[in-house]
Amino acid sequence: MMTQTHAAQAAHIEQQFGSRADAYVRSDVHAKGADLHRLVDVLEPYRGGVMLDLGCGGGHVSFTAAPLMQHVVACDLSPRMLEAAGAEAARRGLHHIETVSGTAEALPFADHHFDVVASRYSAHHWPDFEAGLRQAYRVLKPGGLAVFMDTAGFPDAAADTVLQSIELLRDPSHVRNRTLGEWVAGLERAGFLIEEARSDTLIMDFAAWLARMATPSVHEASIRALLMGVPQSIRVRLGVQDEAISSWAVPLVFLTAHRTA
């Protein structure tokens, strides 16, 4: 059931991302990555199954998984994201990718429907992180695989405060990047048996990161001022190596888990 808070967040996300849908389909950052290579590896035992791409965005998880899966459901709350991802799937001849509108907290699917649930760069937008994990568990078949890939938070409060602040200034629909420990605890509370939980880092072109979200210039100036005003130790933690802030190091998590049989 979608609450007023969830509905408001959904509208906010559509406002932020709907107009940028084509940019996310074309984004090299989203279309490539070591996490997508790892995804292919962990999907191999589930070849021929049915997969949910939860919070599909530009559809890159769906496109990556499609050669292995019999059927892929790309689910997102943004109609324009679904339209853009569906158009790209059709252009690639991936006609077994189906687009479905839905939110993480209230998935429109029956219990035990999917062999695999995968989600990438979506959970930091969920207004109710734990509810999203419980829904992923609900729609997964017993023994099924869940794969979560997302930007991450820092365990130390000072660095995490700066990280969450620049994320929010760049994208007002941002809710929170969770630490690896928070992910592990949340998945366990949802009932999952965790198989792998790893941290990683993605070096991101800073200007391209801002441009992809069409960040207003006043917010960009605030982000840059914040980063140059914090202690050097935090800039090092965030991978900021020069005053121009040409790039930064985005913390990531990659987790695989199973629904117990």
Primary descriptors:
261 residues, Rossmann fold, seven-stranded mixed sheet, 12 helices, 7 strands, Methyltransf_11, SAM-dependent_MTases_sf, transferase, SAM-dependent methyltransferase
Strand content: 15-25%
| Biggest β-sheet strands, sense, barrel | 7 strands, mixed
Cα Rg: 18 Å
The amount of helix comes to 40-55%
Structural class: alpha/beta
Whole-number total of structural domains: 1
General form:
globular
CATH class division: Alpha Beta
Strand and helix order: HHHHEHEHEEHEHHEHHHE
Q: What is the subunit arrangement here? A: single chain
Poorly predicted ranges: none
How is the largest sheet built, in terms of strand order? 3-2-1-4-5-7-6
Helix tally equals 12
CATH architecture: 3-Layer(aba) Sandwich
Query: How many E strands?
Result: 7
- Average pLDDT, to the nearest integer? 91
Calculate the terminal CA-CA distance, rounded to whole Å.
Answer: 26 Å
CATH topology: Rossmann fold
CATH superfamily: Vaccinia Virus protein VP39
Report on the structure:
InterPro entries: Methyltransf_11 (IPR013216), SAM-dependent_MTases_sf (IPR029063). This is SAM-dependent methyltransferase. With 261 residues, this protein is α/β, with parallel strands linked by helices. The chain has one domain: Rossmann fold (3-Layer(aba) Sandwich), CATH 3.40.50. 44% of the residues lie in helices and 24% in strands. It has twelve helices and seven strands. The chain has helices at residues 4-17, 21-26, 28-31, 34-43, 60-65, 79-91, 129-139, 157-170, 180-190, 206-212, 217-229, 232-237, and strands spanning 50-54, 71-76, 97-101, 114-120, 140-151, 192-205, 247-259. Strands 3-2-1-4-5-7-6 form a seven-stranded mixed beta sheet, with helices on both faces.
